[in-house]
C-alpha cells in the first residue's frame, strides 16, 4: 500500500464539487489500505508535496488549475505519478474551442459553432457579426465560456434578444466564448477507462430545459439512467465516438465524453470531454463503472494503478 496525496479544492469555481469528489476518494483509499494525505491545493502546494513525499497523487481538482494541465505540470516536475490525463490532454480538453476544432479536423461530429474572445468582441467589432452568426447557427443557441467545466456559465439563448445577456454571463467566467448550435435531444455521457467505453449514462433533467450546473450536482434534480435505454446500434456508435475522442485528445486513465443524441435526426454529436471526471454521489463515471460491474473502490484502485503504470512506462523510455 502506498502514500497517496489527494489533490482537491483549489480556488476554481468548481471547488465544492472537487471537495465532494475528494471525500469519497479519500474514504475509498483508506478502505483500500493506503496512507491518505489530503491536500487542499493552494500557494503552498509544492512545499506540501515535497514535505509529504507521496508515492502518487490522486487528482480530483475540477476546473481551472486542475483540469487544464497546470497541476499536472507541477507533478511532472516533482516526478510524482498522478491519476488522470496528462498535461497536453488536459489542455486540449479544458479549452472547449480548441477541443471542438480538433474534433472537426478529425471528422468527429460536433455541433456547429463560432468562437471569439473579449478583445474581438469589444475592440474589433465582433459584436456586429452576431446577426450573421445567429443566422448561420439558427436558434436556439448555447453560449459557453471556453474554459469552464460542470456547465458553469452556460446559457441557453432561445432568441436573438437573449444573446447579449448570455454573452455577458459567459464573459464573466472567461475571456473567450463560443456560440454553439443547440442540439435538442438526449443528454448522454460515455466514460472511458483505459481506452474502453463503459456503459452509457443518460442524464434526464427533471425541470430545467437543459442540464445546468445545479441539476448536475443536486440530488433529485436529475434522473440518471444507466445503462441508457438506447438501441444497441446507437449505444455502440456513442461508445465508439467517446473512445475516438479520448484517443484524439490523448486522454489517460478515466475520462468522460459528453454526447447529444439529436431527436430529429438520431445523429450523435460530441459536445466536450472531461479529463478529470467527478467522483461525487451524482457523478457519471462512478455510475457507469458500477453498471459495468466495477465497484467504486475497484475504480479508485484501478485509476491509481494506471498512474503508476504510466510513470513506469515513462521511466523505461
Write the layout of secondary structure elements.
Elements: E1 3-8, H1 15-31, E2 35-40, H2 45-52, E3 56-59, H3 70-78, H4 87-94, H5 96-106, E4 113-117, H6 118-123, H7 130-137, E5 141-145, E6 155-157, H8 163-171, E7 176-181, E8 185-193, E9 196-197, E10 201-205, H9 213-217, E11 222-225, H10 232-249, E12 254-262, E13 268-274, H11 284-291, H12 296-316
Parallel strand pairs: 1-2, 1-3
Antiparallel strand pairs: 4-7, 5-6, 5-7, 8-9, 8-10, 8-12, 10-11, 12-13
Helix pairs in contact: 1-12
Describe the model.
The chain starts with a strand and ends with a helix. It has 317 residues and is an alpha+beta fold. Mean pLDDT is 86; it is low at 211-217. A hairpin with a 2-residue loop joins strand 8 and strand 9 (196-197). Helix content is 40%, strand content 22%. The protein is globular. The protein has twelve helices and 13 strands. The strands form three sheets. Strands 8, 9, 10, 11, 12 and 13 form a six-stranded antiparallel beta sheet that branches. Helix 1 packs across helix 12.
Residues in helix, %: 40-55%
Structural class: alpha+beta
Identify the overall geometry. globular
Secondary-structure element series: EHEHEHHHEHHEEHEEEEHEHEEHH
N- to C-terminal separation?
26 Å
Unreliable parts: 211-217
Determine the strand fraction and express it as a percent band. 15-25%
Q: Number of DSSP strands?
A: 13
Mean of the pLDDT scores? 86
Provide a count of the helices.
12
Amino acid at each position: 500500500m502506498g502514500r497517496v496525496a489527494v489533490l482537491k479544492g483549489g480556488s476554481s469555481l468548481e471547488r465544492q464539487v472537487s471537495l465532494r469528489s475528494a471525500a469519497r476518494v479519500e474514504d475509498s483509499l483508506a478502505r483500500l489500505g493506503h496512507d491518505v494525505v489530503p491536500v487542499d491545493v493552494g500557494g503552498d502546494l509544492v512545499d506540501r508535496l515535497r514535505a509529504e513525499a507521496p508515492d502518487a497523487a490522486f487528482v480530483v481538482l475540477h476546473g481551472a488549475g486542475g483540469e487544464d494541465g497546470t497541476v499536472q505540470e507541477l507533478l511532472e516536475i516533482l516526478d510524482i505519478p498522478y491519476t488522470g490525463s496528462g498535461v497536453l490532454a488536459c489542455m486540449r480538453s479544458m479549452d472547449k474551442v480548441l477541443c471542438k476544432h480538433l474534433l472537426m479536423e478529425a471528422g468527429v461530429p460536433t455541433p456547429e459553432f463560432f468562437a471569439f474572445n473579449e478583445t474581438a468582441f469589444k475592440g474589433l467589432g465582433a459584436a456586429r457579426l452576431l446577426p450573421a452568426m445567429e443566422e448561420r447557427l439558427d436558434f436556439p443557441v448555447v453560449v459557453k465560456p471556453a474554459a469552464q467545466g460542470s456547465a458553469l456559465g452556460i446559457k441557453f439563448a432561445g432568441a436573438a434578444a437573449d444573446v447579449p445577456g448570455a454573452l455577458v454571463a459567459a464573459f464573466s467566467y472567461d475571456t473567450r466564448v463560443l456560440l454553439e448550435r443547440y442540439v435538442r435531444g438526449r443528454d448522454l455521457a460515455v466514460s472511458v477507462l483505459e481506452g474502453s467505453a463503459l456503459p452509457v449514462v443518460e442524464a434526464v433533467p427533471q425541470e430545467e430545459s437543459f442540464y445546468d450546473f445545479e441539476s448536475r450536482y443536486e440530488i433529485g434534480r436529475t434522473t440518471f439512467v444507466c445503462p441508457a435505454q438506447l438501441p444497441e446500434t446507437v449505444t455502440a456508435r456513442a461508445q465508439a465516438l467517446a473512445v475516438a475522442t479520448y484517443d484524439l485528445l490523448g486522454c489517460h486513465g478515466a475520462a468522460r465524453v459528453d454526447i447529444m443524441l439529436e431527436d430529429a435526426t438520431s445523429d450523435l454529436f460530441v459536445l466536450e470531454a472531461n479529463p478529470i471526471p467527478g467522483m461525487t454521489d451524482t457523478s457519471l463515471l462512478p455510475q457507469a463503472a458500477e453498471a459495468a460491474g466495477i465497484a467504486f473502490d475497484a475504480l479508485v484502485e484501478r485509476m491509481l494503478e494506471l498512474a503508476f503504470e504510466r510513470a513506469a512506462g515513462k521511466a523505461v523510455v
